[in-house]
Structure formats: C-alpha cells, structure tokens
Amino acid sequence: xxxxxxxxxxxxxxDEWKRTVCPHEDMELAYEHLANISGMSAFRYIVEEFGGxxxxxxxxxxxxxxxxxxxxxxxxxxxxxxxxxxxxxxxAETKIVLIEKSTNTLIAxxxxxxxxxxxFTPYNKNTYGIDEEGFFILENVEEKGEEVSxxxxxxxxxxxxxxxxxxxxxxxxxxxxxFDCSSQLFPLEGDAVANYEFNVKTEYVKIAFEYEYIIExxxxxxxxxxxxxxxxxxx
Length: 235
Description:
There is one protein chain. The protein has helices at about 1-20, 35-50, 50-55, 55-60, 75-85, 205-210, 210-230; strands spanning about 70, 90-100, 105-110, 115-120, 125-130, 135-145, 145-155, 155-165, 165-170, 180, 195-205, 230-235. With about 240 residues, the chain is an alpha+beta fold. The chain folds into two domains: about 1-90 and about 205-235, no CATH class; about 95-205, no CATH class. The chain has a six-stranded antiparallel beta sheet with strand order 3-2-11-8-9-10. A four-stranded antiparallel beta sheet has the order 4-5-6-7, with no helix packed on it. A hairpin with a 2-residue loop joins strand 6 (about 135-145) and strand 7 (about 145-155). The protein starts with a helix and ends with a strand.
C-alpha cells in the first residue's frame, strides 16, 4: 500500500513538472496534422517518382510510413530545402480523379498506375475504388476460407440513384449497367436527397498545389525544429 501511494505521488510530481517545465502545451512547440496513411503514401510515391533518394535523400528516408519515429533536427534545414525543390518541380503529375458533376466536388483521386480503395461498406461486403479504368465496386465473398473480390460495377460516367434508405443504385450512363449497394458516394456528409452524376477523368496537377496540404504544415514543423534544435516526432 505504501508503495502504491509513493508511486501515485511520483506520478503526480512528474505530471506537475511536465505541465510547468515548458510554456508550450504538452511540451510541443508545434503540432500539425499532415495526412492520413493514404495521403502520406501518395506523397512518398511522388517523392520517389521525382527523384527519390538521389534528389530527396532526407524526405525519402524520414517521411513516416506509420505512427512513430523522428526526423532529427540536424537534417531540418536540408529537408526544408528538399521541400522547396519539390514545390518547384515544373513537371505535372498525372492523376485519375472522381468528380461529382453538379458541384465539381472531388470525391477521390489516385495516380495513373495505381488503384485506391476509399469506401468500405458495413461488414466489408463491398469496396469502392478508382483506377485508370474508372470507378469500380467490388463484392467481397468468402470462398474456401479465403476472401475473394469480384468487380460488380465499373464506369467512368455514372449516376448514383436513391432506391430506398441505405440502398443506392449506380448506373453506367453509356451501357445502362447497374449495381445496388448500401453506401453512397455523395454527399460526403449527411444523406443523399437527390440523384447525382459522376465523372472519372485524367487531370494534370502541379506538385505544389496537389500536396500543399502536406507541404505547408510540414514546413511549419521544420521551422520549429530549426528554431528549437529538437527533432520532429511522427505520431
């Protein structure tokens, strides 16, 4: 019992020290959200495509592949320069994009030589994704103890139609082929109240614009690392 009390006192003293030892909340000079795992994977892919370890050695080595790890402060200025060089790339990246037509809302995007799953229906019965051939819906079934996926719908120009609550019909405009599924694509929040049309097309985007959501907050973290001499912690 005495040991337990002593441990609680020590924990309290440590928490109090941690709270007062640094003027910044949780001892963090800067805290920025960069991307989810898909976004960071796409950014790593671009770094590799535009030079990889030869041109961007620090980015290639230290960009996170999962939660955890650090970017040492001694490399902060070098990685900042690498980001500026990446932003200055004049070549455009070719992307496959899925757009809701009436609002021009971007639903999903991926590189031309990759596919991306971005909707998983309840119980993982169906998966929505895009690739160079368009939007697709997979049906996931178990066969002989293994999960097997079949392409049930594919289209580059289609309509999402409301059938009933939690039931939506996806109709390819050109062929009339359709498939019913339980999850909507649009709107991104709230329930669908109308039918919506979608297009899958190819776009050419500048690196600085496409990955601004990662590059700008990463710059802020790097500047804090240079200022303080402390590493960036990926978490």
